[in-house]
């Protein structure tokens, strides 16, 4: 259900918790951003009675909300990408108008990603709703390029042409602004010249000219303000600028009022360019989405939409093309560029039987691929989904700014009214001079008050940080997790697959009375029929064809090893228990890793040491974490103490806990949390498959090796796509710099506004300072936010 009018974040939390506590409800979630409450009923629960209880909870917690109940069964959705959307006010207005459109249940616009999600009510056709919303959007910001998900490029082009008026309003706006600036400059100079010569007629001509410029440049602002007031949306920037400038004209400050409007529009224009540049940089991530797939049907190739391809189909990827779907190479070999997903610029070689993921770019040879996943489940879809939805999980700072701006603007408008009315009443109600002076101060106060610098720049900064991280192969699922990374002081690692490769290899061969090749042969044949990872690593190390016909009796002895007859000889391969049980005299080995002892016809032949290799950059990763101020690094592992201690010593970890089961890892995390404060966050880094409980418990769960791993992407808050632990330090560094930029903008914007507001109240500033405190500060804040896309790697 949608809770229209829900603007209290605290109330939202209370409602969500009360609903989840209902006996009939399995789980509940209230998204404060889009004001949607979703809940899942327990088996046997009455839908109608439960909805009545939920509505009662909402009414008692936050009376007066517009509650709309939606049935998700058979829900139809429409998703539109509004490219070139740079105006935050236009975005709010588009969302507002779209929600009133015929056939729409609800509409939510994510300004960071320019995505408008629409829920249809089925009363009119999808086409009618699409055209209606596209027309609304185009009328509010004419330069938009509207892309509807699920239809072809040709259909999207036709839609844009249909809803676009014959003349280009965006170009017209630019022409009006250009003409207005020139006309204002000429009129201003003429007024100064005329003032010096004292011609009264000249003053009248200047005033008329100023009014003409005002209407040409600011006419759309006046219309928007009127429409918003009609729709009950009073306290926005259009309203503030309109009241302030019209008031200034009424009291005779025509030149100053028109100047405010001209420079306001010029500032908005420059601000739009800055936002568009930042958005374009971020949206380049979306270019990894493949447009077509070359489907092989018999001997023919048919170009189709990737969403039409099914599992098991054969596709062809030509040199220079992007791989459209996940699959296995069945013919050809080539080099592929994986940077779109991993952030790694080094090309990777792929051959027959190798896995390739959607988003890879084929560089130099034809590849034939068998599709293994639908487009919706492919790597590129998951990456796009994460990036597109990242801004829906807002940081506390963003939520604070949203609530702050809701109360800040009306309060300042009230203060402006007090400044304009109370002092002249107290000083001399009959004095026109006093009324003129204080009303002008009140109007100037209005221009300063709009908090657009914060409302626009703070979300943009977080989105830029998430976008920069994504470009570097680090997917962060929301700005709340990006913000949390700033306060991390303890990083807890799983061992296998995180700090080590998770692939067992034969690292040492100790032969006794036989050659190393013979020892490997006996071991390989003994392990040939086993599916154990250790057995597979031995067969792989042998690297020769095995004639299974030479193997006679085969016995797998639980917790001991294997007994097999090979070429008429009895071969034993296993642990010390197996050697002792068969009275074999052997030499115990104290190597780090798993030791497999080999005996042939009752005589000890040697041993193999199998171990998991430490990743190449694990040591560097720990060192980088220490450099950026992480106080403690911990390793939790189910491996034995000897192996765990050896890995911890080599990597210089602070603490290590071994022989742990998954539930015991959670217990250790709980121990680490004891005595911690709000700003002492714990990160757990695992492979996302076996560590879901710990990933969920940690403040931020980071999955390693997420490339192609469904479990990793589902379980974690952050996914490291290239499997390199050193990326964790980069993610934390990105978080810290993003937070610095956010607070720079908050302090700068509020600081300038407070200074100018106080100066205005005491008559020490005019409309020009007010314009800078509004549009100028917003522009500077947006430019500062763009720095989050240009962060250098911290050493």
Helix/strand-derived class?
alpha+beta
Number of strands: 30
Distance between the termini: 48 Å
Mean pLDDT: 80
Work out the strand percent: 15-25%
What is the tally of helical segments? Answer: 26
Q: In the residues, how many domains can be counted? A: 6
Q: Any low-confidence stretches, pLDDT <50, length ≥5? A: none
Specify Rg, calculated over alpha carbons. 34 Å
Task: Give an account of the 3D structure.
By secondary structure, the protein is an alpha+beta fold. It has six domains: 2-68, Alpha-Beta Plaits (2-Layer Sandwich), CATH 3.30.70; 76-166, 2-Layer Sandwich (Alpha-Beta Plaits), CATH 3.30.70.100; 171-281 and 394-460 and 740-789, no CATH class; 310-373, Calcium-transporting ATPase, cytoplasmic transduction domain A; 472-500 and 615-734, HAD superfamily/HAD-like (Rossmann fold, 3-Layer(aba) Sandwich); 502-613, Calcium-transporting ATPase, cytoplasmic domain N. It is 50% helix and 20% strand. The protein contains 26 helices and 30 strands. The strands form seven sheets. It has a seven-stranded mixed β-sheet, sandwiched between helices. Helix 23 (692-697) links the parallel strand 28 (681-686) and strand 29 (700-704). Helix 6 (169-197) packs antiparallel against helix 9 (254-283) and helix 14 (452-471) runs antiparallel to helix 25. The model has no long low-confidence stretch (mean pLDDT 80).
């Amino acid at each position: 259900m949608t809770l229209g009018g829900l603007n209290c974040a605290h109330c939202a939390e209370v409602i969500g918790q009360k609903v989840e506590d209902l006996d009939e409800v399995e789980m509940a979630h209230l998204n404060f951003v889009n004001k949607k409450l979703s809940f899942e009923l327990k088996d046997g629960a009455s839908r109608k009675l439960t909805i009545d209880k939920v509505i009662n909870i909402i009414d008692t917690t936050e009376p007066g909300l517009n509650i709309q109940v939606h049935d998700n069964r058979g829900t139809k959705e429409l998703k539109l990408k509004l490219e070139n959307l740079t105006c935050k006010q236009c975005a709010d207005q588009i969302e507002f108008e779209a929600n009133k459109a015929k056939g729409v249940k609800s509409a939510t616009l994510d300004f960071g990603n320019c995505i408008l999600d629409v829920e249809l009510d089925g009363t009119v056709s999808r086409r009618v709703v699409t055209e209606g919303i596209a027309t609304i959007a185009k009328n509010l910001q004419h330069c938009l390029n509207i892309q509807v998900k699920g239809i072809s490029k040709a259909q999207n082009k036709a839609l844009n042409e249909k809803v676009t008026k014959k003349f280009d309003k965006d170009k017209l706006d630019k022409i009006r602004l250009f003409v207005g600036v020139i006309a204002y400059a000429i009129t201003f100079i003429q007024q100064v010249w005329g003032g010096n010569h004292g011609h009264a007629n000249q003053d009248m001509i200047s005033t008329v000219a100023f009014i003409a410029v005002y209407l040409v440049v600011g006419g759309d602002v006046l219309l928007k303000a009127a429409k918003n007031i009609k729709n009950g949306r009073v306290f926005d920037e259009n309203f503030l600028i309109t009241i302030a400038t019209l008031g200034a004209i009424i009291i005779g400050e025509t030149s100053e009022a028109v100047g405010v409007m001209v420079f306001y529009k010029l500032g908005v224009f420059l601000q739009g360019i800055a936002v568009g540049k930042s958005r374009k940089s971020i949206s380049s991530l979306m270019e990894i989405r493949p447009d077509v797939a070359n489907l092989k049907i018999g001997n023919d190739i048919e170009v189709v939409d990737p969403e039409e391809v099914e599992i098991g189909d054969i596709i062809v990827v030509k040199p220079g093309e992007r791989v459209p779907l996940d699959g296995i190479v069945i013919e050809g070999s080539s080099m592929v560029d994986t940077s779109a997903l991993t952030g790694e610029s080094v090309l990777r070689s792929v051959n027959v039987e190798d896995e390739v993921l959607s988003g890879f770019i084929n560089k130099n040879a034809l590849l034939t691929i068998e599709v293994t996943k639908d487009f919706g489940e492919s790597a590129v879809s998951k990456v796009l989904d994460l990036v597109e939805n990242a801004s829906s999980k807002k940081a506390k700072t963003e939520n604070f700014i949203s609530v702050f701006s809701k109360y800040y603007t009306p309060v300042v408008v009230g203060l402006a009214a007090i400044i304009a009315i109370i002092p002249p009443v107290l000083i001399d109600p009959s004095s026109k001079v006093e009324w003129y002076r204080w009303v002008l101060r009140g109007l100037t106060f209005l221009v300063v008050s709009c908090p657009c610098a914060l409302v626009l720049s703070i979300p943009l900064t977080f989105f830029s940080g998430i976008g920069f991280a994504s470009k570097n192969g680090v997917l962060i699922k929301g700005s709340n997790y990006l913000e949390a990374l700033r306060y991390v002081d303890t990083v807890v690692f799983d061992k296998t697959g995180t700090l080590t490769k998770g692939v067992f290899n034969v690292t040492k061969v100790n032969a006794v009375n036989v050659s190393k090749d013979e020892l490997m042969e006996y071991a390989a044949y003994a392990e040939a029929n086993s599916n154990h990872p250790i057995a597979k690593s031995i067969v792989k190390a042998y690297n020769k064809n095995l004639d299974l016909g030479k193997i006679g009796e085969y016995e797998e002895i639980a917790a001991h090893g294997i007994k097999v007859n090979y070429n008429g000889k009895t071969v034993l391969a296993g642990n010390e228990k197996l050697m002792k049980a068969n009275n074999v005299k052997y030499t115990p080995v104290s190597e780090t890793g798993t030791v497999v002892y080999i005996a042939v016809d009752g005589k000890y032949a040697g041993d193999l040491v199998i171990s998991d290799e430490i990743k190449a950059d694990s040591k560097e990763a720990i060192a980088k974490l220490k450099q950026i101020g992480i106080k403690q690094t911990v390793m939790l592992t189910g491996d034995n103490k000897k192996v765990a201690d050896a890995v911890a010593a080599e990597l210089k970890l602070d603490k290590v806990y071994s022989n742990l089961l998954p539930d015991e890892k959670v217990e250790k995390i709980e121990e680490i949390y004891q005595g911690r404060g709000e700003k002492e966050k714990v990160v757990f880094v695992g492979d996302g498959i076996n560590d879901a409980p710990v990933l969920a418990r940690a403040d931020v769960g980071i999955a390693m090796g997420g490339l192609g791993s469904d479990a990793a992407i589902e379980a974690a808050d952050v996914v490291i796509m290239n499997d390199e632990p050193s990326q964790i330090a980069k993610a934390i560094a990105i978080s810290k710099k993003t937070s610095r930029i956010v607070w720079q903008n908050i302090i700068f914007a509020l600081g300038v506004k407070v200074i100018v507001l106080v100066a205005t109240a005491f008559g020490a500033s005019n409309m020009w300072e007010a314009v800078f405190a509004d549009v100028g500060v917003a522009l500077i804040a947006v430019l500062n936010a763009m720095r989050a896309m240009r962060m250098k790697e911290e050493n």
